[in-house]
Design brief:
- By secondary structure, this protein is of the alpha/beta class.
- The protein has two domains: about 200 residues, Medium-chain alcohol dehydrogenases, catalytic domain (Quinone Oxidoreductase, Chain A, domain 1); about 130 residues, NAD(P)-binding Rossmann-like Domain (Rossmann fold), CATH 3.40.50.
- The protein contains eleven helices and 18 strands.
- The strands form four sheets. Strands 3, 5, 6, 9, 10, 17 and 18 form a seven-stranded mixed β-sheet that branches.
- It is globular, with a radius of gyration of 20 Å.
- It binds zinc ion (2 copies).
- One zinc ion binds next to helix 2.
- The site of one zinc ion has 9 residues, from helix 2.
Length: about 350
């Protein structure tokens, strides 16, 4: 079959690889849509903590079941499925405590297992066992279903930062994740959502996310805007959704007492060491929280959010491409010419 194989950082080739074997008590899925994520680009450029080479990338996957093992398999040929990337063990303490994305033995499609930038995907039985295979609700397209994973990551981040409808939230970065966070916060009843960006291309596209205020930090003073929007109180939650955002702004000064900061995006090596005033955290009861990936349950919930019409993701798709054009898709994203690029032709 045809696949996009990352052999080493920078070496991503569209090539022929052997068709996947049907795993014992597993599935083979014909991939119908797979979206490019910022993490795919990061892996292509620099590698990633969980990545094992050579690897077929792609973890925002939707397709049709084409093969099933005989026996007790809860899926049939022809069913439309979305695949949550995490393959967790169901046994370790993290799994038992409801944090399977922190599983001691986690496997991840597109990182440790071959992913969705290929014609077919082998789905091991453990992916089914941990609830990672979801039927796509009727009315949801394959392209929409690829958003279940990034939206699930937003659900995870907003849960961990305890986002409440009374909060004023400041989202740094109006890329696809910043836009999804905006729409999800709105769907959860948050009334005041401030979305911050400096790229003019992205600002133009992000209007459709309908934040309460879109802040152009190349022109506006963020501190002043926050002051104005919150009557000097500060924001309750800051969501860092892009690798540039964390240290460009004196973020702590923007927080209200009991403010929370979610490190939703990983930071580049040279920016990962942060300096902050611990006493500021102490006196004002500030919380820092990290968020990485999502759970199978959150993928299912994300599909429900889309099926109920609470979150409409279609406008985020700026380009549909063939697998051969994967490099063009990556360039479109890095140049900020696209918000989301989906491979729909394999
Ligand atoms: Zn992703
Ligand atoms: Zn586990």
């Amino acid at each position: 079959m045809k696949a996009a194989l990352l052999k080493s950082p920078g070496e991503l080739v569209i090539t022929q690889v052997p068709d996947p074997q049907l795993p014992p008590k597993g599935l083979v899925v014909k991939v119908e849509a797979c979206s490019i994520c910022a993490t795919d680009i990061k892996m292509f450029r620099h590698g990633q903590r969980d990545l094992i080479y050579p690897r077929i990338l792609g973890h925002e996957i939707a397709g049709v079941v084409t093969e099933t093992s005989t026996g007790d398999i809860p899926f049939k040929r022809g069913e439309r499925v979305q695949i949550a990337p995490g393959i967790s063990c169901n046994r370790c303490l993290a799994c038992q405590r409801g944090a399977p994305n922190q599983c001691d033995h986690i496997g991840i499609f597109g990182f440790t297992h071959h992913g969705g930038f290929a014609q077919y995907l082998a789905v091991p039985t453990q992916s089914i066992a941990c609830g990672g295979v979801n039927l796509i609700p009727s009315g949801i397209t394959f392209v929409e279903a690829t958003f279940a994973e990034p939206l699930a990551c937003c659900l995870n981040g907003q849960e961990l930062v305890r986002l409440d409808s009374q909060d004023v939230v400041l989202i740094l970065g109006a890329g696809p994740m910043g836009c999804l966070h905006t729409m999800l916060a709105r769907a959860k009843g948050v009334r005041q959502i401030l979305l911050v960006e400096r790229s003019l291309k992205r600002l133009t596209m992000a209007i459709k996310a309908k934040p309460s205020r879109l802040i152009n930090v190349s022109k506006e003073n963020l501190k002043e805007v926050v002051k104005e929007e919150t009557e000097g109180r500060g924001v309750d939650v800051i969501m860092l959704t892009c690798p540039e955002s964390a240290i460009d702004y004196p973020i702590l000064e923007l927080l209200a007492p009991r403010g929370r900061v979610c490190f939703f995006s990983g930071l580049p090596q040279e920016k990962r060491q942060l300096y902050f005033d611990a006493n500021f955290l102490h006196y004002r009861e500030i919380t820092f929280v990290g968020a990485y990936g999502c759970t199978a349950d959150q993928n299912r919930l994300a599909l429900e959010f889309m099926a109920s019409g609470k979150v409409n993701v279609n406008w985020l798709v700026t380009k549909r491409i063939s697998l051969e054009a994967l490099h063009d898709g990556i360039n479109c994203l890095t140049g900020h010419d696209c918000l989301k690029v989906v491979v729909t032709e394999f």
